[in-house]
Amino acid sequence: MKWEQTIIFFAFICCNTLIVSAQNITVDDTKTVQQLVEKLVNSACANFTNFSVSGDIYTSGYNSYGEFTKNGSSFPLEDGIVLSTWSSKNSIGPFVRNQGQGSTSWLGDADLNKALNITTTINATSLEFDFIPLTSFLSFNYIFASNEYQDDFPCRFSDGFAFLIKEKGGSANYQNLAVIPASTTPVSSTSIHQAISFTDSFGNLKSCPAKNENYFGSSNTSPTNTSPINYAGQTIVMNAQTNVVVGKTYHIKLVISDDVTKDYDSAVFLQAGSFSPKIDLGPDRLITNNPICFGDRYTIDTQLSPAYIYKWFKDSSLTPISGETFPSYNAVDSGTYKVEVDLGAGCIATGTIKIEFAPEIKLNDATLIKCVTKLSDTAFFDLTKAEATIKNNNPSLAKIDYFETQTGTILSKPILNPVSFPKTTSNDVTVFAKLTSKTYGCIETAKITLKTMVSTPSALPLTPPVVNDFSGDGNSVQLIPPDTGGSYEFSLDGTNYQVSPLFTNLAIGNYTAYIRDLNNCEYLTYLVDILDYPQFFTPNGDGYNDIWKIKIFDLFPKATITIFDRYGKLLKQLDSKNSGWDGTYIGNEMPATDYWFNLNSGDGKIIRGHFSLKR
């Protein structure tokens, strides 16, 4: 509230003259406190006692609280009770700009000060009572309306409302339920409003940004206003709720006040039946927020006594689910589930929850085969090689953990080193891969069967390899597997196998190549020779590098080598029996320079190159 040094022209609905229209709400301020509580509660699902009300005692013949009805107007609530900071009858619309009324002797409320985190409440109206709930959930609907929703007042003044609850007789403080959803911010004219931009009569711009604007319902200050209530603005229908313990005694205090001064009043409209008997079935489990994993059962539990009468419903069906008359229900598919519980004495409580199931995680079981010399050999398996098969090209699957055993759905004995898991028996061994969905956190399990097979020779025809030698550090061999569509692994020593058939950076020498079928452990084998020539030699008689020759050339009886000088003169011809050149021609030492050679393998392969003679 505030005092503005501004001349305000208005047509004020005074306390003694009321204009009632079919487009406006009606207010009856003659009801007793018990009648107000009964109107608000309208439920057999709680016991209410110790009613009290306080408010305006300074305006003769009028109360700051009462009952209201929609009266055919556009007001969102059908009926209920109103608590205000002036005569409750002044709440009847339409809105007329006025400074309001009140008294400086009409004090504020200490509990509301604490709830709003201010010290300046004035003209407070409160309704208090005790209640014992028969259900575990408390909920109510309300609209906060205020004449502070004018000019720049929402930037400065916090008229506000609190719904306070605490266990009776305990030491706990009040909990305020009238807060911005998903926060602890109290509902007031400063916490819910549109963006403010106002130029006062002196030309000063006063402004502040919007706050929680999505909860602001409407501004009623336009010249063509037909608001059914006499307030400058109002929130949307707000909901406050909390869990309570069945059978405990609670104290409730509903309280509203002005801030700072008695002017520019406010009200809270509480919907009749706001204390509707609800059962908290927990938060919805939606595909966008913590769905149930495919194949799981989700137990919806009322947590109430089995002595009550239960009916369970799915989606919009009016027919109860057959045979389901218990406090809990196991849901196995998506839908909106509702329970009705007859608590006796005319109290029927309801609860709803929406459940959605995540998509099925489709995995493939996998088999890994290790080839061994004999079945008693210990074989080491890289379990991660089964990952692609198991995931079935599903990018939503993230982490994989491996386990040795599974009992029911319980996995045990985690495998700490899955890239080298020992299999010590000749029998097949099954291990388990647990995969977790990145999107939903759901878990699915696949089997990995580990087999060992004895390697045996294959009768398939052999295709010669592609040998690229005489390349220095670039020597390579490309092994050619049989064209059977099988899966193969490759080795040049029979011990160390690789997936690729290409072997690079090979040194000069003899190799025994293996091509092994991963499905049946049959293998093909043949010899591979890698040749290369020295890039230079030094025939100086020191016993080191005095002869230019190609290693293991003597193993190729059909091959010949011819050596030429730079002019093409034939200097030496070599074969498997005479496989080296000492750097002479007809007994004469040849000069230090480059020389060229041709190697004819005898089977159509020709190699040409050059080397240096150094002295």
From TrEMBL:
Entry keyword annotation includes Signal: yes
Keyword Membrane: no
Superkingdom classification of source: Bacteria
Name of the protein in its database record: T9SS type B sorting domain-containing protein
Keyword set, alphabetical order: Signal
Signal peptide feature range: 1-22
